[in-house]
Amino acid sequence: MSPLQLAERLKKAALELGFSLAGVTPAATPSGVEQLQAWLDAGFAGEMTYLADRRPAYDHPEGVLPGAKSLLVLATPYRTLEPQSPEPGQGRVSRYAWGPTDYHDYVRPRLHQLADTLRALAPGSESRCVIDTAPLLEREFARLAGLGWQGKNTMLIHPRQGSWFFLSAVLTNAELAPDEPFKTDHCGTCTACLDACPTQAFPEPGVLDARRCISYLTIEQRGLPSPDLRDAMGEWVFGCDVCQDVCPWNRKAPATEEPTFSPLAASDPLDLAELFELDDAAFRQRFRKTALWRPKRRGLLRNAAIALGNAPAPTAEPGLVRGLSDAEPLVRAACAWALGRYGTESAAKALERQSCIEEDPIVLEELANARST
């Protein structure tokens, strides 16, 4: 089978499996490697030290699959309903995490099916399936495979499908006929995404300072966000969609009917006070198979407390008081900050009680600040 026939068969199989876009590009050193190094040197990766640790592997897809010659790059759409506005005591969750299943668990088996198809069509070939966990500049390779251009918000944008999709790839040592790279940037003079970012996380178009990005702050950061960023986090408790919500190219992006990405009744908006009633076992049972498992219990409760501090709800105060005695210092610190914004006698008494018994220095600092507001 020729490289062209093989590529066409694989792309056809990909669409049949539910991928919305499929393209092929040769395995080569991506032009974005230099930008990646500059981005790391600027400190924009924050606490994501694993990116620098495996930086050399980004130089070539062979760092992911030795002998790699081609990449089949794929898009999986996840846009479903339009999000509801949160009511008092609720928090916002990024669209991609609404469903009952972590998207990795949906996409990965389909990638393996494509790899099986490839082995059947090209006996002896080797492949590796990746979905945002390997040292690979997926957005750059997606552009090279003709799937779209990289917008000013760094997202890959397709003219008809917008940016509401996951990227993944099958790397192989088989020769596949490449598609034409996407060469036109259709953002023009639009700066909607840059202007709308609540934390001003874009120092320049196409460059993200992750340390200021709400998605990073709610998922990747392990400690408390700096006080100057907490207000701007609003009611987001997991991820953020603002820079995509305002993108004109997403206005007519098609919706998927895939139930994996349909919102759970309790996913978005998320009832925040009840999270403080979950111990480790209950949290695991509720979130283990979802994307919300990523920040773990301590991270999600921290985020919930910050959201409740930004939008105080009387019905949520008991949950924050409960969080003041949580086993995790991070949760106690965030709850102290939040309760300092309630201004009620009951909140003041709870802060005073905890101040008398607290031993963690970070929590004590947050308690002192909260009591002085």
Automatic annotation (TrEMBL):
Query: Mind listing the UniProt keywords for this protein, alphabetically?
Result: 4Fe-4S, Cytoplasm, Iron, Iron-sulfur, Metal-binding, Oxidoreductase, Queuosine biosynthesis, tRNA processing
In Gene Ontology terms, what is a biological process of this protein? tRNA queuosine(34) biosynthetic process
Identify the EC number(s).
Answer: 1.1.-.-
Q: Please provide, alphabetically and separated by semicolons, the GO molecular function terms listed in this UniProt record.
A: 4 iron, 4 sulfur cluster binding; epoxyqueuosine reductase activity; metal ion binding
TM region positions: none
InterPro entries linked to this entry: 4Fe4S_Fe-S-bd, 4Fe4S_Fe_S_CS, ARM-like, ARM-type_fold, QueG, QueG_DUF1730
Which positions fall inside the 4Fe-4S ferredoxin-type domain?
178-207
Q: Does the keyword Cytoplasm apply?
A: yes
Name the domain of life this protein comes from: Bacteria
PANTHER family in UniProt: EPOXYQUEUOSINE REDUCTASE (PTHR30002:SF4)
Mind telling me what this protein is named? Epoxyqueuosine reductase
Organism of provenance:
Pseudobythopirellula maris
Give the gene symbol. queG
